[in-house]
């Protein structure tokens, strides 16, 4: 049994599907703060299995410990957290509260229940402004905003915990830019309000929910002047979690691992690819750079290969086709309004 915080969310729901398909039982612990109960219904439609579910907030230590104990889980995958950079600048305390305090409560609950295997959702944001590309796991760590700080604090907390008790088994997965959706088109990213991230915004333009895309700057030091990122199919990312769990079965360690493809695509590359996948025109306007954005960011994914035997298999075309299938069959996400 695997206990999954934030299992109704974008990455969590895809991980549930892969885990269930691989024969695991799962218990989802979620408060639907940025997700919908319908995601769990869809997981059942895809897999034929209903995930166990507890409605709760990770900051509520007693509810969490009770749920973890009752689940009988042997490992935790911790997705729950807030993730909008701009919002984190406006509401830093909310980010420290949900992400840092929530994770602290989770680690306490795990200690109490004797569950010492954890896969944690970190982010390439912990590399700050890249000093060298591609990014390897030993690149220096820094944070440029409160969201990134919370990921860094949690990573440090996990390393300290492991140092104090080396019987823990911890995998820190540093995600690059997750995009796309399950090939069924039944689950996908469902941002509340105006999307901050590129692909959900592009998809909403394609489906007619928004008029045009703002391209945040075309004067970066990149081949076409627009920002370059390592976009990774969310199903590949989800499978990375399975592989991490497999490895922890026979490793007591605390290891940080990049989950990316190693390939950088620009904003313009992404617009073109999405236009092709959707057969829609994506109108865009070039606007000022977004404060805090970096020119380029992409992974060296070789450590994931050597440690997990994992590499991303899905192409840019798959990312856009699957993202479009989800968006076009669920134009307003999980809500039917
Ligand atoms: C952002 C966060 C990062 C977080 C990640 C996952 C910032 C500065 N960084 O990464 O910390 O881990 O999301 O949630 O917010 N773009 C446009 N127009 C748009 C949206 C994006 O041109 O409307 C461009 C951006 O300038 C960037 C690229 O698209 O070059 C990707 O942006 P985005 O999807 O927001 O991801 P990151 O900025 O890489």
Largest sheet: 7 strands, parallel
Strand order of the largest sheet: 3-2-1-4-5-6-11
Individual helix count: 11
The name of the CATH architecture is 3-Layer(aba) Sandwich
Number of domains: 1
CATH class: Alpha Beta
Q: Give the ligands present.
A: uridine-diphosphate-N-acetylglucosamine
Give the H and E element order: EHEHEHEHHEHEEHEEEHEEHEEHH
Low-confidence stretches: none
Question: What name is given to the CATH topology?
Answer: Rossmann fold
Number of strands: 14
What is the alpha-carbon Rg in Å? Answer: 19 Å
CATH superfamily: NAD(P)-binding Rossmann-like Domain
Report strand %: 15-25%
Shape assignment: globular
| Class per helix and strand makeup | alpha/beta
- Straight-line N-to-C gap: 35 Å
Helix percent reads: 40-55%
Mean pLDDT: 97
Describe this structure in words.
The chain is built from 11 helices and 14 strands. It has 337 residues and is an alpha/beta fold. It has one domain (2-329): NAD(P)-binding Rossmann-like Domain (Rossmann fold, 3-Layer(aba) Sandwich), CATH 3.40.50.720. The strands form 4 sheets. Strands 3-2-1-4-5-6-11 form a 7-stranded parallel beta sheet, with helices on both faces. Strands 12-9-14 form a 3-stranded mixed beta sheet. Helix 1 (10-21) packs across helix 8 (234-248). The longest helix is centred in the N-terminal third of the chain and has 22 residues, at 92-113. It starts with a strand and ends in an 8-residue tail after the last helix. The model has no long low-confidence stretch (mean pLDDT 97). The protein binds uridine-diphosphate-N-acetylglucosamine. Uridine-diphosphate-N-acetylglucosamine is lined by residues 83, 85, 123, 125, 147-148, 177, 196-198, 201, 213-216, 227, 229, 267, 290, 292-293.
């Amino acid at each position: 049994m695997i206990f999954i915080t934030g299992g109704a969310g974008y990455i969590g729901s895809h991980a549930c599907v892969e885990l269930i398909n691989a024969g695991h039982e799962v218990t989802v612990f979620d408060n639907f703060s940025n997700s919908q109960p319908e995601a769990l219904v869809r997981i059942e439609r895809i897999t034929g299995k209903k995930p166990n579910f507890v409605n709760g907030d990770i900051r509520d230590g007693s509810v969490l410990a009770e749920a973890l104990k009752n689940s009988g889980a042997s490992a935790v995958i911790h997705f729950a957290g807030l993730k909008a950079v701009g919002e984190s600048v406006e509401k830093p305390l909310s980010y420290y509260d949900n992400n840092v305090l929530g994770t602290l409560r989770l680690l306490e609950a795990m200690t109490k229940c004797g569950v010492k295997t954890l896969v944690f959702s970190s982010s390439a944001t912990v590399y700050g402004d890249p000093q060298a590309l591609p990014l390897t796991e030993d690149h220096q760590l820094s944070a440029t905003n409160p969201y990134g700080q919370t990921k860094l604090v949690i990573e440090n907390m996990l390393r300290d915990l492991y140092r104090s008790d080396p019987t823990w088994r911890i995998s820190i997965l540093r995600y690059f830019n997750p995009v796309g959706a399950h090939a069924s088109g039944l689950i996908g990213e469902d941002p509340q309000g105006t999307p901050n991230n590129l692909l959900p915004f592009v998809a909403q333009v394609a489906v007619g929910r928004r008029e045009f895309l703002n391209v945040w700057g075309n004067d970066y030091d990149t081949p076409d002047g627009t920002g370059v990122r390592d976009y990774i199919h969310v199903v590949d990312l989800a499978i990375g979690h399975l592989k991490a769990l497999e490895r922890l079965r026979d490793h007591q360690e605390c290891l940080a691992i990049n989950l990316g493809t190693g390939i950088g695509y620009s904003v313009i590359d992404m617009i073109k690819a999405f236009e092709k996948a959707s057969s829609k025109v994506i109108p865009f306007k070039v606007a000022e750079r977004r404060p805090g954005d970096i020119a380029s960011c992409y992974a060296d994914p070789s450590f994931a290969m050597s440690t997990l035997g994992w590499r991303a298999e899905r192409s840019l075309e798959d990312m856009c086709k699957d993202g479009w299938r989800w968006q076009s069959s669920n134009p307003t996400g999980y809500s039917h309004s």
